[in-house]
């Protein structure tokens, strides 16, 4: 009998830590599945993984919560600023009742989530040499954020003027001053060489960045318990390792950026957090958040 | 790779050769592949639609076309031409030099070789063939050859496409194109001077030097365009994609307010024509996006990568192989298709061998642009011969010396990376 | 009959106006985008969405509804050099292929486009079935166009003016 083919589409580049994790998963389940990994969004375009799985044209995808929230508005809570404290908080939330509640919604949409995949905490990276301690200090600062209103609102929620821009254009735009800054996890700042054209990194930690590794729910339910167990444990092992490597990488990059002459410092995070959560609760996004969920997630912080 | 993939490629080639428009050939053959595989046939459309919807940087294409068309209807192109004639028209083969120099200047405003050829190219071809001074085939050949330079000097649509597939900084790619573009321009003029001697082409009536200030003054608004674009991009006003819109705005303002040569009616005609050109060129990209899925699902990149891995290529032999392969592919495939489908196959190996991605980008773009003019399949070749109505065979004969010297230029660019990377490094590129 | 001709003229103007208006909108959006960011310091995001939608529609509308022979980019080394009779055969063969493939895939395309109502665009909240509906228009119109191409070729008309000059626009340069 032929092994089931699992095609995974992700946007990460071939040399990313997560690409290694996917390769490890494919290796670990190779007895039971023919898992083919397509990185760099070469198989399906970024943001279309979910619909491709739903239409049965793709088996697995690394899906951004922003993409899911376009279909399931309740998920937009996971894209809000200062929701998770760190990667542990993220994982704990997905294992909790709150997580079960959110995963039930994706299950109904035909998507079975295997694990949240942490890829770093987003920090503000600026070209001008102004000190930023409070959200008010970011007033009028043109901050590149990914396209889409959920992302753009995230920029507003920390007090900046967000502007969308293609990822490949960010470096030049920072260099020429078309934008003042951008926000990304530190490993991205390193990969895209943003540190060459910026003067400081403000450790706002405004969003714990993650995607979910997901599989077609129909496919998953047709698997034998042994197959489910094999895939799930391979995912858990590889993703835990990937998360640890990301955290370690962020630690060492702080020193690297300091050595490169950048100012790297922590602002008044409480001020940022209060400002952002207030903005979100006043916004249309919060209207779709399930009753009491934000408190439940906050309670899981420790 | 499956037999279905072979069938798909065969059908593309066959239908294209018997005259099915190329965009349709690629889209329909991709659907045909899905049908053979028993997959959902809508995937081809989905890939095309989501690919177009998600590719923000492609938006520069219609705006550059619009800017070039505006330059033609507002007399910007004419004034630029007068200036070039006054400058180099006094030498043997002078109009040939004008052709090259105007392409160099025009290249600062258009990101597209086709736009250059149908814009400035058409005007110069008319001048060259008037009174039988130059044979139509020679005028076609040098127009095609010089239009190649357009997208090598910034701004450049192919470089935007390369940045899209390689995540390379567009700004540095643009800077890296300047020196190679100038080198190729000089080489073409050398070849033109030689050809003019061989065929004894006439000397243009020299423009009196006392007229030069007046002609220069008249051309100032057109000459300012590249300056404005560069200031726009490097002064932080616009991104390179947005600069295309700035170019169009500038051409529009100059020709309506300053020269008053564009009325509302001609403006509408221009925008309508630009939209039509956009659709023609863009649909080739759309077809390539559908076919891209077939190539990916067949894991063609992996197959080629494995084959490359067995070759034990060195830095230099890899670059040599890429150049030969791309030049051969350029004879058969469309430039955008090469950039979107074939180049990603080479990228990982290039990076692994330590080839600088910006240098690699310039090599690839020069290569694919030369491919635009190489027979049998060269879009530029079709465009220019259709303007002069001279037989393709004659045009190819006149084109060969120019292609030969362009390939020599490509070799220089490939094997002297410092020529390419000097300017980007001056602006802080660490590569 | 004059009424019919008049109708054809009006229809042709309207058909051409769609991509022209879309390109104008795209141009204006880019200008607004730059102005809002650089001058007003309040960047906007919706302009990008208008531009990508316009781009999609210009392409697919322009290659179907308002497409003309001379706008089609084709590989015409062989096609342009063979006899008219052989060229008619070529036209018949590729029309059959294209009509067959597009017609066969039409239900699947319809299914995809209607499915996409599940998602809305980010800023303007337009459902994607509306955005992607242009693909259905494209497919249906292409089927009709190539049925016509087949019909004219089969009848022996030389409806095609597409020789080696197929690539270039016929409008005069100023
Ligand atoms: Na030229
Ligand atoms: Na250019």
TrEMBL record, chain B:
<dbReference type="InterPro" id="IPR004681">
    <property type="entry name" value="TRAP_DctM"/>
</dbReference>
<keyword id="KW-0472">Membrane</keyword>
<feature type="transmembrane region" description="Helical">
    <location>
        <begin position="48"/>
        <end position="68"/>
    </location>
</feature>
<feature type="transmembrane region" description="Helical">
    <location>
        <begin position="243"/>
        <end position="262"/>
    </location>
</feature>
<keyword id="KW-0813">Transport</keyword>
<feature type="transmembrane region" description="Helical">
    <location>
        <begin position="361"/>
        <end position="387"/>
    </location>
</feature>
<comment type="function">
    <text>Part of the tripartite ATP-independent periplasmic (TRAP) transport system.</text>
</comment>
<protein>
    <recommendedName>
        <fullName>TRAP transporter large permease protein</fullName>
    </recommendedName>
</protein>
<feature type="transmembrane region" description="Helical">
    <location>
        <begin position="104"/>
        <end position="125"/>
    </location>
</feature>
<feature type="transmembrane region" description="Helical">
    <location>
        <begin position="12"/>
        <end position="36"/>
    </location>
</feature>
<dbReference type="InterPro" id="IPR010656">
    <property type="entry name" value="DctM"/>
</dbReference>
<keyword id="KW-0812">Transmembrane</keyword>
<keyword id="KW-1133">Transmembrane helix</keyword>
<feature type="transmembrane region" description="Helical">
    <location>
        <begin position="274"/>
        <end position="295"/>
    </location>
</feature>
<feature type="transmembrane region" description="Helical">
    <location>
        <begin position="315"/>
        <end position="333"/>
    </location>
</feature>
<feature type="transmembrane region" description="Helical">
    <location>
        <begin position="399"/>
        <end position="423"/>
    </location>
</feature>
<feature type="transmembrane region" description="Helical">
    <location>
        <begin position="215"/>
        <end position="237"/>
    </location>
</feature>
<feature type="transmembrane region" description="Helical">
    <location>
        <begin position="338"/>
        <end position="355"/>
    </location>
</feature>
<feature type="transmembrane region" description="Helical">
    <location>
        <begin position="137"/>
        <end position="164"/>
    </location>
</feature>
<feature type="transmembrane region" description="Helical">
    <location>
        <begin position="170"/>
        <end position="194"/>
    </location>
</feature>
<comment type="similarity">
    <text>Belongs to the TRAP transporter large permease family.</text>
</comment>
<dbReference type="Pfam" id="PF06808">
    <property type="entry name" value="DctM"/>
</dbReference>
Automatic annotation (TrEMBL), chain C:
<dbReference type="Pfam" id="PF04290">
    <property type="entry name" value="DctQ"/>
</dbReference>
<keyword id="KW-1133">Transmembrane helix</keyword>
<comment type="similarity">
    <text>Belongs to the TRAP transporter small permease family.</text>
</comment>
<keyword id="KW-0472">Membrane</keyword>
<keyword id="KW-0812">Transmembrane</keyword>
<feature type="transmembrane region" description="Helical">
    <location>
        <begin position="89"/>
        <end position="110"/>
    </location>
</feature>
<comment type="subunit">
    <text>The complex comprises the extracytoplasmic solute receptor protein and the two transmembrane proteins.</text>
</comment>
<feature type="transmembrane region" description="Helical">
    <location>
        <begin position="12"/>
        <end position="40"/>
    </location>
</feature>
<feature type="transmembrane region" description="Helical">
    <location>
        <begin position="130"/>
        <end position="151"/>
    </location>
</feature>
<dbReference type="InterPro" id="IPR007387">
    <property type="entry name" value="TRAP_DctQ"/>
</dbReference>
<feature type="domain" description="Tripartite ATP-independent periplasmic transporters DctQ component">
    <location>
        <begin position="26"/>
        <end position="155"/>
    </location>
</feature>
<keyword id="KW-0813">Transport</keyword>
<feature type="transmembrane region" description="Helical">
    <location>
        <begin position="46"/>
        <end position="68"/>
    </location>
</feature>
<keyword id="KW-0997">Cell inner membrane</keyword>
<protein>
    <recommendedName>
        <fullName>TRAP transporter small permease protein</fullName>
    </recommendedName>
</protein>
<dbReference type="InterPro" id="IPR055348">
    <property type="entry name" value="DctQ"/>
</dbReference>
<keyword id="KW-1003">Cell membrane</keyword>
<comment type="function">
    <text>Part of the tripartite ATP-independent periplasmic (TRAP) transport system.</text>
</comment>
């Amino acid at each position: 009998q032929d092994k089931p083919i699992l095609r995974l589409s992700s946007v990460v580049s071939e040399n990313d830590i997560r690409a290694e994790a996917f390769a490890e998963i494919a290796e670990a389940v190779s007895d039971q599945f023919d898992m083919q990994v397509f990185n760099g969004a070469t198989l399906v375009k970024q943001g279309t993984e979910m619909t491709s799985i739903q239409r049965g044209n793709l088996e697995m995808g690394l899906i951004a919560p922003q993409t899911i929230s376009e279909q399931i508005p309740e998920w937009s809570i996971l894209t809000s600023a200062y929701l998770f404290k760190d990667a542990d908080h993220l994982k704990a939330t997905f294992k909790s009742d709150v997580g079960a509640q959110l995963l039930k919604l994706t299950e109904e949409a035909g998507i079975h989530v295997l694990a949240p995949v942490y890829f770093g905490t987003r920090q503000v990276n600026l070209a001008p040499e102004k000190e930023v301690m409070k959200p008010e200090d970011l007033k009028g600062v043109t901050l590149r954020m990914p396209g889409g209103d959920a992302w753009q609102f995230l920029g507003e929620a920390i007090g900046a003027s967000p502007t969308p821009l293609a990822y490949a254009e960010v470096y030049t735009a920072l260099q020429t001053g078309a934008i003042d800054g951008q926000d990304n996890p530190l490993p991205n700042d390193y990969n895209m060489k943003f540190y060459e054209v910026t003067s400081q990194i403000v450790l706002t930690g405004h969003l714990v960045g993650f995607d979910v590794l997901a599989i077609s729910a129909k496919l998953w339910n047709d698997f034998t318990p042994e197959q489910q167990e094999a895939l799930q444990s391979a995912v858990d092992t590889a993703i835990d390792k990937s998360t640890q490597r990301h955290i370690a990488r962020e630690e060492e990059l702080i020193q690297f950026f300091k050595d490169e002459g950048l100012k790297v410092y922590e602002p008044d995070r409480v001020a940022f957090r209060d400002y952002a959560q207030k903005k979100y609760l006043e916004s249309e996004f919060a209207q779709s958040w399930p009753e009491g969920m934000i408190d439940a997630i906050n309670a899981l912080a420790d | 790779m499956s037999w279905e993939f072979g069938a798909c490629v065969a059908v593309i080639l066959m239908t294209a050769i018997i005259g099915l428009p190329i965009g349709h050939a690629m889209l329909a053959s991709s659907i045909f592949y899905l049908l053979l595989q028993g997959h959902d046939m809508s995937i081809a459309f989905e890939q095309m639609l989501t690919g177009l919807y998600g590719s923000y940087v492609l938006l520069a294409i219609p705006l550059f076309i619009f800017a070039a068309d505006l330059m033609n209807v507002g007399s910007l192109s004419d004034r630029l031409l007068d200036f070039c004639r006054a400058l180099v028209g006094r030498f043997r083969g002078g109009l040939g030099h004008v052709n090259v120099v105007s392409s160099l200047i025009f290249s600062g405003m258009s990101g597209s070789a086709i736009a250059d050829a149908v814009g400035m190219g058409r005007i110069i071809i008319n001048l060259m063939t008037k009174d039988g001074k130059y044979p139509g085939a020679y005028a076609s050949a040098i127009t095609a050859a010089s239009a190649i330079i357009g997208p090598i000097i910034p701004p450049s649509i192919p470089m935007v496409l390369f940045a899209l597939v390689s995540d390379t900084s567009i700004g540095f790619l643009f800077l890296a194109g300047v020196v190679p573009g100038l080198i190729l321009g000089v080489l073409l003029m050398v070849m033109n001077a030689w050809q003019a001697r061989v065929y004894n082409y006439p000397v243009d009536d020299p423009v009196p030097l006392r007229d030069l200030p007046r002609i220069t003054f008249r051309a100032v608004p057109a000459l300012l365009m590249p300056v404005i674009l560069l200031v726009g991009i490097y002064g932080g006003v616009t991104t390179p994609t947005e600069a295309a819109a700035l170019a169009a705005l500038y051409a529009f303002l100059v020709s309506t307010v300053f020269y008053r040569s564009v009325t509302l009616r001609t403006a509408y005609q221009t925008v309508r024509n630009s939209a039509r050109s956009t659709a023609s060129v863009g649909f080739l990209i759309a077809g390539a996006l559908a076919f891209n899925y077939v190539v990916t699902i067949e894991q063609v990149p992996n197959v080629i990568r494995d084959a490359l891995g067995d070759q034990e290529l060195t830095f230099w032999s890899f670059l040599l192989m890429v150049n030969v392969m791309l030049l051969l592919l350029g004879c058969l495939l469309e430039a955008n298709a090469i950039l979107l489908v074939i180049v990603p196959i080479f990228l990982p190996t290039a990076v692994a061998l330590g080839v600088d991605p910006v240098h690699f980008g310039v090599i690839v773009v020069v290569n694919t642009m030369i491919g635009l003019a190489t027979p049998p399949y060269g879009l530029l070749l079709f465009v220019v011969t259709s303007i002069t109505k001279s037989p393709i065979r004659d045009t190819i004969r006149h084109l060969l010396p120019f292609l030969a010297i362009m390939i020599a230029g490509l070799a220089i660019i490939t094997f002297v990376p410092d020529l390419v990377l000097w300017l980007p490094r001056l602006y802080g590129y660490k590569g | 009959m004059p009424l019919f001709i008049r109708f054809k003229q009006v229809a042709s103007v309207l058909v051409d106006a769609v991509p022209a208006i879309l390109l104008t909108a795209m141009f204006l959006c880019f200008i607004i985008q730059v102005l809002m960011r650089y001058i007003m310091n309040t960047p906007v995001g919706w302009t990008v969405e208008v531009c990508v939608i316009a781009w999609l529609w210009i392409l697919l509308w322009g290659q179907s509804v308002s497409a003309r022979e001379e706008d089609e980019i084709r590989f015409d080394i062989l096609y342009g050099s063979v006899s008219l009779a052989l060229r008619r055969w070529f036209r018949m063969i590729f029309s059959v292929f294209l009509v067959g493939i597009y017609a066969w895939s039409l239900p699947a395309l319809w299914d995809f486009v209607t499915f996409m109502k599940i998602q809305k665009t980010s800023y303007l909240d337009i459902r994607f079935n509306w955005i992607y509906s242009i693909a259905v228009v494209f497919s249906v119109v292409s089927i009709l166009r190539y049925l016509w191409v087949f019909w004219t070729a089969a009848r022996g008309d030389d409806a095609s003016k597409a020789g080696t000059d197929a690539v270039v626009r016929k409008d005069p340069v100023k």
